[in-house]
Fold this protein.
Amino acid sequence: MSVIQQHNVKLAGTGPIAMVFAHGFGCDQNMWRFVAPAFEDAFRTVLFDHVGAGGSDLSAYDPEKYASLDGYADDVVELCRALDVQGGVFVGHSVSAMIGVLASKKAPELFNILVMICPSPRYINDGDYEGGFSEAQIAELLDFLDSNHMGWSQAMAPIIMGNPDQPELSDELTNSFCRTDPDIAKRFARTTFLSDNRADLVEVKARCLVIQCSEDIIAPLSVGDYVHGNLPNSELVLIEATGHCPNLSAPEATIAAIKAFL
Amino acid sequence: MNGATPASAPQETDDLEDLFENAPCGYVSTLANGRISKANRTFSTWTGYDPEQLVGRRFLELLNIAGKIYYETHFGPLLRMQGFFNEVALDVVRADGTILPVLVNAVVRRAETGGIRFIRVTVFNASDRRRYERELLEARRTAEQASSALQDLNATLEARVVERARALDRAWRLSQDLLVIAGADGVLTAVNAAWTDLLGWQASDLIGHSFEAFTHPEDLAATQAAFAGIFEAPLTQSYEYRLRHADGTYRWFAWTGALEHGEVYATGRHTTAQREQAAVLARAEDALRQSQKMEAVGQLTGGLAHDFNNLLAGISGSLELMQTRMSQGRLGDLDRYINAAQGASKRAAALTHRLLAFSRRQTLDPTPTDVNRLVTGMEEMIRRTVGPAIHIEVVGAGGLWPALIDPPQLENALLNLCINARDAMPEGGRITIETANKWLDDHAAQERELPPGQYLSLCVTDTGTGMPPEVIARAFDPFFTTKPAGQGTGLGLSMIYGFARQSGGQVRIYSEVGQGTTMCLYLPRHYGSVDPEGTLFTHSAVQRAEQDATVLIVDDEPTVRMLVTEVLEELGYTAIEAADSGAGLKVLQSNVRIDLLVTDVGLPGGMNGRQMADAGRLMRPGLKVLFITGYAENAAVGNGLLEPGMQILTKPFAIEALASRIKNLVTD
């Protein structure tokens, strides 16, 4: 199976420059449904699912490889090279913002621009650094995931159900709308919430846009400031929105911020 | 119907309000940004928050940390994209910090313009369901663990079997004993390495051959029998036989074995060294016994020589003095010396008698005897012997069976027992002489080392010092005595023991130190009647015979022949002498008149006295015979069971006794 199929890649747009959208922990490329179309006129948009999420090849999931974000970054590099991406734009949500940082470090020629939506280089507080979570809270999360396998399985049930009120969405929703394998989700959570990529920020050569939501418990304002402060070449945009997903809750503002930066 | 009346409108509102507030689920409305705008009383009650406290907070703030994260990363986005989510399992943290498991449905309500009016969140209490899920989860985990354990077992089973097989193989290889499996036909099918170590055979020399091929020829029959026995019952008491070593010598092995599935499994322990040790030990024991015997013999002969020398000194001294007095013509003094010599001779005769009794080689003349009468006859003599300080009590059982014994010997034994009893009571006391009939069953008989059956007992009980066990244990040993030197020969009890055993009976001692002693003689019952005449000796005066008779006297000892000839002449009979059995038989086979044969039992000339007498009786049926015997030949004369017309007299004898016997036989 090619890397294209493995990642359930969806290509659109006709522009000369590739714009790669990477989803974060918890969903799949559907996250970009309100944002990506806005760039199809000017860019060649690339949407994909990380291995273990959405319509990706679940059999390719290797717990050892994906125990660190490097595994995901290697996939991005491989995928982009397969698609002949050069000097492109990488849009990463949440943990994928850091995956983009790692990928661009591995293959600087791929991206000239990194757009980071609600990024966090480290979720756990560390001395003066405010990641937003105490060590105990992350331990509680991981314990909870370990001991509530079935509960979370039940929680995922509606995700794969159709939507009878909107029959035009039903097929899409039934098959892949934020579909997540609970066991893989658990591992992805561990990889994500234990990651620490603060030291990688200073090495980023690309121009960076950091989009921060005003009220995000996963990536609080202090984190946005930290990221912006440590990237050599970045711009910080604060969007008035609650939650961790402005691409869904405030798509217009998000599009506007990106377009302005580009 | 005109629809709702104006008056009913407030009522309807109240009703709906009540429905909302007290619904069986929590209702929460939030704004587009997730902040709570309204919550019903049910939710407020469940969570412990006042409705006012809830308004303005984000719904996800009420969740635990995992719920917050998953809401932000999963359910929030889902709601945005899909417009609703159903049955999401979350944990609400109550005001008091406790957890309320809930199932949450959420739906986005949009205005006609498309904008979000509010988000309706419905919360179901899922405590029961979550508990049920936990139980299911636990059950599944248990099942998975069991399944995993089973898989592990399956995976390791083969390895365990292999390891077990290796362990058994090691036990088989390393055993120091011979291990073998053989077919029902005795053909060996498997042997261990010990066969090579102990017998020098390789497995290939053995397998396919029967054990018989390696068995010592002398052991073959017994070994075949032992092998056959395994088919009846496992061989647990080891059976020993010899197996041939490859070098041709034989080794001893002690085998045990059992049958299973038609094959014999056996183990053989090498016992050659053990047997050699046992043989060495046995030889050492033999040597020790021999030396003890020689010591005893030395003691005996030494003691005898001493006693006999004393007696001989008395006799020869008397004879010398008689010779002196005769040469001096002082014939009046002769009687003293004759009496002295006779006394010494009698003591010597008594001594040899006791020796023979102890050696159980005395010549017994068993007669059916009424023991009660014998005891009664002895009572006066015993009383005089033990003296006035001791009270004698005789308890004779009524209906006492007769015994088949030699009466003078029993009298002697009884007297001896009473003398011992007296010596045990220096301060005086009581002697009880008791007779009884005894039935000895298997157990009682075995205890007394006798055949089971009917016996009568003669017990002598004293009230004396008693004997400790170590004295009882040696009481019958010859020359063992507790009396001061010179007061006892140590032969008394051993003589009684010899007499009892020779008579087919037993002696037992029951004694307590300080309490007294009971000595019991067990004598075999005689099935028959007792001669009412009694058996006590009556010594009639020697009288000359009133008729002519010819007596053949056969003895190799000339002095005995001379003595007997003189007695015969005294009696007026004609004597013919022969010095051995050949000469005697020649006379018997001739036509010479013979009224009586007097013969020694032990004779030179090829026959003993009995055989000569029997040969003579072929020619002379009813020939009367008197055997005179020293010792040892009582078997030859039928252990006292003589044919009619035959009698026995033990040397040494009083001349009177000989004359009386001869006269009775000739005239009978």
Notes: Chain A has a mean pLDDT of 86. Chain A touches chain B through 46 residues (CB under 8 Å).
